[in-house]
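Q: Could you write out the predicted structure for this multi-component system? I'm mainly interested in how the pieces pack against one another.
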Amino acid sequence: MMDQQQKTALVTGGNRGIGSAIVRGLAKLGYRVLLGSRNLTAGKEAASTMVGDVIPVELDLSDREVLKNQVQSILENHPAIDVLVNNAGILEYGSLLEISEEQFYRSARVNFEAPFDLIRLLTPGMVQRKYGRIVNLSSGWGSFDEGLTGPSAYAVSKAALNALTLTLSQSLPQSVKVNSMCPGWVKTDMGGAGATRSPEEGAATAIWLATLPDNGPSGGFYRDKRLIRW
Ligand SMILES: NC(=O)c1ccc[n+]([C@@H]2O[C@H](COP(=O)([O-])OP(=O)(O)OC[C@H]3O[C@@H](n4cnc5c(N)ncnc54)[C@H](OP(=O)(O)O)[C@@H]3O)[C@@H](O)[C@H]2O)c1
């Protein structure tokens, strides 16, 4: 459990899949967790099954202005967000020439631009308070080292998210850390029933990065708590 200084974490897409396992895990460690979901009813339902200090908040990543307004209202009630987990994501199948423009731009919006918006809205407060942990849920399918083998819109948006991690880390003080991670192949709506890992196993590295000590790493890409190549 944490000491008296309870920290607050915001997890996007916390209503199901890996996000919900991250919310559970952080709440178990004593964090106040803001469970972000675009459908507040779904968020409330998920939160009602969880133990600890879990507060559902409405967060729809599809539209920049809507998202900004929602973050402003969250900050009115919770002015100090110490941890941001950019978990929400979408997977559109198809090659770059097959998919529609909408699929491509939607993937970019949810997987990459919205994390950028959230980082811009929440990181200045972390820098000011001299504490912050940002975790970006990426994927091996967005890794150049592994050949960018994912469906094109997904691969490009996750590679861009990784680039955001690295470039952001270069301008942050040591007290605010940002890392990318790949959860592996996880049994969720996205991963499918044939996947090899449970949501809890997929969430473990994200929780570790969200709770790094002061001397922990920043600007890396991790799987199973081990550094992997971009
Ligand atoms: N599962 C895997 O094998 C795997 C592998 C590598 C990386 N990842 C990454 O891990 C993360 C979580 O994946 P998952 O498997 O848990 O996915 P999932 O089961 O499909 O859940 C996705 C979550 O993202 C939310 N979301 C989607 N679009 C949104 C939007 N526009 N605004 C707000 N929330 C939105 C969903 O909300 P709704 O319920 O409202 O749709 C849901 O909560 C993703 O970033 C994914 O790319 C997963």
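A: Regarding packing and overall arrangement: Residues 84 and 134 are 5 Å apart (CA to CA).
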